[in-house]
Amino acid sequence: MGYSAASGWRINLEYDFINQDELRSGTHSVTAEQVALINNNGGSQEVEHQTINRYTTLGISYQPNANWNINLLVPYISRSHSTYSNAMTDELGPSDLSFAQANGIGDIKLVGSYQGILPTHNLGFQLGLKLPTGNYGGQNVVTGATVGRNPVLFTSGPNAAAGLALDTSLQPGTGSTDAIVGMYYYQAISQDFDAYGSGQLQFAIHQALDQVNADYRPGNLATVSLGIRYEADARVVPQFQVNFTRKGADDGALADTTDTAGTVVYLSPGITVAAEHNLHFFGFVQVPVYSNLSGYQLFPHWTASVGLSYHF
Questions:
Q1: Per-residue pLDDT tens for 143-200?
Q2: Domain span at 84
Q3: Total domain count, the chain
Q4: What is the rounded distance in angstroms from the CA atom of residue 10 to the CA atom of residue 7?
Q5: How far from the centroid of its chain's Cα atoms is residue 295's Cα?
Q6: Rounded Cα gap, residues 232 and 235, in angstroms
């Protein structure tokens, strides 16, 4: 959407769809049978099948003047997950799949921005918090006792029969309070083109899951985006971004420490369309062009985002 120095309120509603249906390790794809073979040889590797994420996020921002902005992001998460758990190659049938469905409010973010350093207001700094508002938790790895706040359980398959909870990293919330720091810059580079860049770092500063054999801390997350906008026609603005993401490994007894870190680069074309003066619609597609993932992780072939923004 770009950035603005115009004061007032803005409401955003965004829908994101992410279908993680490809197993990858390092920089290449792998099959479920290849992962299950690890367990044939005495290993203990989860063989995940698919995770479909649907995020609906309400954003409310207030800008009292050209220098300051505060933004509240409230996500609703609908996530379906299926896994073969620690199956072997002769156990990869439909009866070996376990299913879980996580629905609910996720972790809310509150981010403040200051862009008053330059008279052009095109350089900004961000500071914010991610709050533990989503349900979270898992099971003590020694006693099996449920910990956290209303963690989602598997609803069918072998994991449901065993009364197991969905992975802690796949719950609607992480149970952690995270700090968010970032910066952004945008600049007109010709009469019709604007360029922009942003970077953000998110890291946990407190975790509610801190018990022995039942602790969890999400890995640090760094994102960098570079983009260009073509503004010859203010009513229809094509955009093109390069998005870089680096996630550190989750930590703790409830964490999958070997299968959660990675580096990804996406190309992201998109467009913003003005329906009227204060109402805009937008859509983006992200296509991964490089990934280097630790362990064995589910990964999307593409992701999509659509939404609307109203300023008043």
A1: 999 999 999 999 999 999 999 999 999 999 999 999 999 999 999 999 999 999 999 9
A2: 8-311
A3: 1
A4: 9
A5: 19
A6: 9
